Automatic annotation (TrEMBL):
SMART domains associated with the record: AAA
Homology family: Belongs to the ABC transporter superfamily.
Example GO biological process: cell division
Name recorded for this polypeptide: Cell division ATP-binding protein FtsE
UniProt-recorded Gene Ontology molecular function terms: ATP binding; ATP hydrolysis activity; transmembrane transporter activity
Domain ABC transporter: 2-238
Subunit architecture: Homodimer. Forms a membrane-associated complex with FtsX.
Record's compositionally biased regions (Basic and acidic residues): 241-251
Record GO cellular component, one term: plasma membrane
UniProt topology in membrane: Peripheral membrane protein
Annotated region (Disordered), positions in chain: 227-295, 315-336
Chief site of localization: membrane
One Pfam family matching this protein: ABC_tran
Length: 336
């Protein structure tokens, strides 16, 4: 399903690689925890799966496809088969829970009839069937994350990537999110979750891959967060590589670079809270109107159109907006 073949990624010449000589495979239907200190290479690994960055050496395969051979205009199609869940939720603040999920379907031209069936199904699956009309700020942090998971899964991707999905949640709420991810995994989706959540890893007892300084130092079929292995940083057996970060301070600037930075401008920071702010349970964090999610989805729609030179793009977007209020009919009925 996902394979790294002798992959090394160096962001800037002279810097230490973010990942080095990476040879690992995640098979279909697996649930994998990626663990390691900040800067260990987890985020770079996930970004290469999404083809946000390309390896400096080696080959990344996703669903049997060599990503280096996929042209840029086909990347949106690739990403439709990869759901992504973030620590900071990245919901569109002006859209309801229903509309946030609907938006992921609208940009790929899903028929309205199918949307009206799928979105309620997703809301029910994540336990929010009665909260579809609520805006993100009216939901708790756990509820916002459930909406984000529903949005990531609504296209039934074969792979679901989760970057610290429980990082902003209290333990009880985090447990519910883990149960939801486990349910998605049981339906056949490969789940790869980067986390610092010790209790989550210990509770699930799934495959654990630990990274240190861009290298995989541990790969256990049914592992725990901590390990007696002497190469583990998170277990306190090996000092954190703070000297490396002092030597290359640019690595701590990934969060400031913004989502639209080019590959050359991005540092190899593996700050696992990339793009996130601290959020209290009950308030959460939502994306701004110009958030990368909406821009990426719009770019995806444009990418689908670029192949047809005869299509009038302006006319294509002049049609009635797809994302509408799904509860408008109910409101009109109440007025009558």
């Amino acid at each position: 399903m996902i394979r790294f073949d002798d992959v090394t990624k160096t962001y800037m010449r002279g810097q230490r690689p973010a990942v080095e000589n990476l040879d690992i495979e995640f098979t279909r239907g697996e649930f994998v925890f990626l663990v390691g200190a900040s800067g260990s290479g987890k985020s770079t690994l996930m970004r290469m799966v999404l083809k946000e960055v390309a390896p400096s050496r080696g080959t990344v395969y996703v669903a049997g496809k060599d990503l280096s051979r996929i042209p840029s205009w086909k990347v949106p199609a690739l990403r439709r088969d990869i759901g992504m869940v973030f620590q900071d939720f990245r919901l569109l603040p002006s859209k309801t829970a229903y509309q946030n999920i609907e938006f992921a379907l609208a940009v790929i031209g899903t028929p309205r009839k199918v949307v009206r069936r799928l979105v309620p199904e997703m809301l029910e699956m994540v336990g929010l069937e009665d909260k579809g009309k609520r805006l993100p700020h009216e939901l708790s942090g756990g509820e916002q994350q459930r909406v984000a998971i529903a949005r990531a899964y609504v296209n039934r991707p074969s792979i679901l990537m989760a970057d610290e999905p429980t990082g902003n949640l209290d333990p009880a709420t985090a447990g519910g999110i883990l149960d939801l991810l486990a349910e998605i995994n049981e339906r056949g989706t490969t789940v790869v979750m980067a986390t610092h959540d010790r209790s989550a890893v210990d509770r699930m007892q799934r495959r654990v891959v630990e990274m240190v300084g861009g290298l995989v130092v541990r790969d256990e079929a049914r592992g725990s967060y901590a390990t007696p292995a002497p190469v583990s940083v998170i277990s306190g057996n090996l000092p954190d590589d703070s000297a490396h970060r002092d030597e290359h301070p640019l690595e701590d600037q990934q969060e400031d670079s913004g989502p639209e930075s080019t590959t050359a401008e991005r540092s190899p920071a593996e700050d696992e809270t990339h793009g996130a702010t601290s959020a209290e349970e009950g308030s959460g964090t939502v994306a701004s109107a110009g958030d990368v999610l909406e821009e990426d989805l719009i770019d995806e729609r444009e990418a689908l159109l670029v192949r047809d030179e005869d299509l009038d793009v302006e006319d294509a977007f002049a049609e009635e907006p797809f994302v509408s209020d799904p509860f408008a009919d109910d409101a009109q009925e109440e007025e009558r």
